[in-house]
Design goal:
- It contains 14 helices and six strands.
- It has 343 residues and is mostly helical.
- The protein folds into three domains: 48 residues; 79 residues, DNA polymerase, domain 1 (Orthogonal Bundle), CATH 1.10.150; 167 residues, hpI Integrase, Chain A, CATH 1.10.443.
- It has a three-stranded antiparallel sheet with strand order 1-2-3, with helices on both faces.
- The protein is globular.
Length: 343
């Protein structure tokens, strides 16, 4: 029998001896591939993963001349300002700026105007989120460049982001949580992951770092990963019985509660892929880790928690963002309250 080989496809065997295929490319999240190699299902998934991977690969930049856009980008990447950013922020900003350098890296920044910034923004008009990120990256670049005399002016001033509406990540319902828990019982990594995400509402980069050293006196005390080097947020929340039960059912053998099949801590990207896989196993392909963050905020809002109380639990730093997470939940509560006044 001929064994088909595909670039970036690796095989992992879980602790139960089941073989699984993944698309794995250095620096990118691992993607589970379903179906037999060569089948329609497998080839469709592989083609999609390969295309997505190529889009994520940063283009190779040639050595840029001083004063060019590419030169300013390279100087920005080497700066202490850029290096102080979180790794995730560095990643998306660099991808956004490098994509511009492909066609415009050799052009002088001194001649760049608002018209050119709008043109670069509109190149991504079919992907409003990408257009917004491109503009945000350009603004950050030129704020730094003007201060460091790498650019004579900031052409992003006055350029507006493309307005668009997005529902964001799906917020889990109570029924979906129960469905997931039936599929993944206590004592499994999948169930513990759900409990950590749901009963802390923290991001996946925090979930994979959480460990026994953060639990003291019935409370969880932890510094969030996001902006920890610039504007750190220290969390101090009660350890709910549901989370304590899930932790006790899978005693920690590491400095982190969650570990891979090989006994090592998850990376945020690896954990995101694993959690998505666990959701698919529970027939919940539309659910995600971030959706649980929204779900807890919604539950708190439904029970009358104020925006400031929600911010204290979730680590959200903006009232506007806290209200965005909870607006839909509060709408139904307020409607019930209003209709009772008719009785």
């Amino acid at each position: 029998m001929v064994k088909l080989r595909f670039r970036y496809v690796v095989e992992d065997v879980d602790r139960h001896g089941n073989a699984r295929l993944y698309f794995r490319r250095r620096g990118q999240a691992k993607i589970r591939l379903f179906g037999l190699p060569g089948s329609v299902e497998f080839m469709t998934a592989y083609s999609t993963a390969l295309a997505s991977s190529e889009q994520q690969q940063p283009p190779r930049l040639h050595r840029a001349s001083k004063g060019s856009f590419g030169y300013v980008c390279q100087a920005y990447y080497a700066s202490t300002t850029f290096k102080a950013l979180d790794a995730s922020t560095q990643s998306w900003r660099r991808r956004a700026l490098d994509s511009i350098c492909v066609n415009h890296g050799d052009k002088p920044v001194a001649q760049m105007s608002g018209k050119h910034v709008r043109m670069l923004r509109d190149e991504k008009i079919a992907l409003p989120g990408a257009a917004r990120n491109r503009l945000k990256a350009l603004r950050a670049l030129f704020r730094w460049a003007v201060e460091k005399d790498e650019a004579p002016h900031d052409p992003t001033i006055g350029v507006k982001a493309i307005a668009y509406v997005t529902k964001g990540h799906h917020s889990w319902t109570a029924d979906e949580v129960e469905t997931y828990e039936r599929r993944h019982p206590l004592g499994t990594n999948a169930r513990l992951a759900m409990a950590i995400l749901l009963y802390t509402s923290w991001r996946r980069e925090d979930a994979v770092r959480l460990g026994p050293q953060h639990v003291r006196g019935g409370r969880i005390k932890y510094r969030q990963a996001k902006n920890e080097h610039r504007n750190p947020v220290d969390m101090d929340i009660p350890l709910l019985p549901e989370l304590a039960e899930a932790i006790a059912a899978l005693p920690p053998m590491h400095l982190t509660f969650l570990v891979t099949e090989y006994g090592k801590p998850f990376t945020p990207s690896g954990f995101g892929g694993a959690f998505k896989d666990w959701c698919r196993q529970a027939n919940l392909p539309h659910c995600s880790a971030h959706g649980l963050r929204k779900a807890l905020a919604a539950r708190l809002a439904e029970r009358g928690a104020t925006p400031h109380e929600i911010m204290a639990v979730t680590g959200i730093q903006s009232l506007d963002v806290a209200e965005l997470y909870t607006r839909a939940a509060r709408k139904s509560v307020l409607a019930d309250s209003a209709m009772l006044k008719l009785k």
